[in-house]
Design a protein that fits this description.
2 copies of one chain form a homodimer. With 335 residues, chain A is α/β, with parallel strands linked by helices. Chain A is built from 10 helices and 12 strands.
């Protein structure tokens, strides 16, 4: 038996169930209007099993966090879902997310409505992350915020003039796809050469480090990165901190790319706050310090002066808090 | 004697006086809420005479278009002023526009209030241009619009979700300052290397053509551009149309840069309409055709599919219509 919370215990904005669909991880939580998660859980996506199996697991994960929080589905304002695009946020359909191969035209909102009997909304996870950091996190109280998640890929979104920015295509902008190097490396997500994502994502850091290790081996240069398998972005950051020259070069290229991309984004969005989330930002000031310096030097004066660069407050729960934020934004208060 | 219009002859949104302060030209007009200009006039800025002389001439120009339209200042909803940034749109002060050397902290709004006895507002001319094309021009009825003016420099602005975008620094974004070539030519306005403005502005086209002519002379290659003084962007476009290989190379570099910059901008803003204005766009499809192809090929699928590229409807009056648009947006209806 589950003990169901009384409405008095929560504020009058109600509670939402927040679901985050990632390429490697599914996450769920029950979140209050002030951003407090009453419960949180995550499990592997196991994307190779296809959408039916993964969504079954996601909705079970949702039920488990409802139970943990002592909340019945009927008490929910509704469900918020964040997922990588392209997606149709109004129809609530995942179109063909590149991190979820084989998930074509999945009507995830209808399925969530069926699962919990409450309304549901879907947004790009970058858009949701921006909304979450603005409502609950590092951008609270600001008028405009640019959010960038530097992870397997680079996603993001924006809140402009106090409103979540969604764009005409409904994906709320793709800040990972600004040019940082003309005729540079091809970008796996969009096909263009020289995107920010092709240089500063975790995947790219690991890949460029692998190439640098091979070059070092051919040149007979020692590097602490040699022999690491898998070789990750975190390995590169750690070796760079210890002064390994191969790692330092890869890290500097990463920081230069991120600084250049953010300079472009700060020039065009003139945000009050730039929030950086995702695994790569766990390196903290090792990443943020030089990136801040580049933006301060290269962005246009008034835009650079207005923008404060900081790390996401949501941490590992940023995806769930983002999904909660769009639910509070888009769904009517619970009955 | 001036015959003053009766209120009945105009719609109930009133009339505004619109003033556009450019680096080479001052323009003024009396504009109705439907975007019809009842009068229009322009004169040289003569920037070397300093702000006092130029503003005296601007306010006289304003009086002349009021007279021409048969409108008394007291009948105005107010005055809208567009000018290049950086500026403080809320305080109504020009800070230090690079195209107006020596104009430091000019309180242009207070001066306009004094001149006409009616309220006045100031915005970045790129922001005003975006508002003008959205309200009166090529982006009418759209939800989101990106405006780029390709002229002496490259400015612009955006309307997002039906609201004029102003940014935390109040300059509404500087879309001319996205990276198009890493380690490229230095940008005169912002100091960074490889900005869109450093490749596709009229100034840059002429400058790069000058360099190409010198190289052609050194190599003994003939070009129709040799001996033209001044050599303008329009000369380059005309010679490229006739197949002059030196001009073709400069034009192709221009188009590639503009296509690349717009790809980045379309990815991050996901606009419904992209409006291109400014002198360089008088070349029409010679510019727009290849730029459209590059954006369609390189921008992310949903964003590219959503974006319609077109030329500004305002033509030579775009600045005045933009200034009128921000006046209608920001000023209360006339008494």
């Amino acid at each position: 038996m589950t003990h169901h919370r009384s409405a008095e215990r929560d504020n009058d904005q109600g509670l939402v169930l927040a679901l985050d669909i990632g390429g490697t991880k599914l996450a769920a939580g029950v979140v209050r209007a002030d951003g407090r998660a009453l419960s949180f859980a995550a499990c592997p996506t196991a994307v190779q099993e296809g959408p039916d199996a993964a969504l079954k697991r996601l909705f079970e994960l949702g039920r488990s966090v409802l139970d943990e929080a002592g909340v019945a589905p009927g008490q929910l304002r509704g469900t918020g879902i964040g997922c990588g695009g392209p997606l149709d946020g109004e129809a609530g359909v995942l179109i063909c997310p590149p991190h979820l191969p084989g998930w074509l035209d999945v009507p995830v909102v209808d399925l969530a409505v069926e699962a919990y009997g409450r309304p549901a909304v879907l947004d790009n996870d970058g858009t949701a992350g921006a909304a979450g950091e603005w409502r609950f996190g590092a951008g609270r109280g600001s008028d405009s915020l640019l959010y960038l998640t530097v992870s397997t890929g680079i996603g993001g979104g924006a809140v402009l003039g106090g409103r979540t920015f969604r764009g005409a295509a409904g994906n709320g902008g793709e800040p990972g796809h600004v040019l940082v190097r003309s005729d540079g490396r091809p970008c796996r997500s969009c096909g263009r050469r020289g995107c920010l994502e092709a240089y500063a994502s975790g995947t790219s850091i690991a890949e460029r480090a692998g190439e640098a290790v091979a070059e070092a081996a051919a040149a007979g240069t020692d590097t602490a990165l040699a022999g690491l398998d898998p070789l990750t972005a975190a390995d590169v950051a750690a070796a760079a901190r210890r002064g390994d020259p191969v790692a330092v070069a890869v890290w500097e290229e990463t920081v230069t790319a991120l600084g250049s991309g953010l300079t472009t984004l700060v020039n065009v969005f003139e945000p009050e706050v730039v929030v950086l989330g995702g695994g790569v930002t766990r390196t903290g000031e090792q990443l943020l310090g030089p990136v801040r310096r580049i933006v301060a030097e290269q962005a246009m004066g008034p835009a650079a002066a207005a923008a404060r660069l900081t790390v996401a407050a949501g941490g590992d729960r940023a995806g769930v808090l983002g999904a909660a934020a769009i639910a509070f934004e888009r769904l009517d208060p619970a009955p």
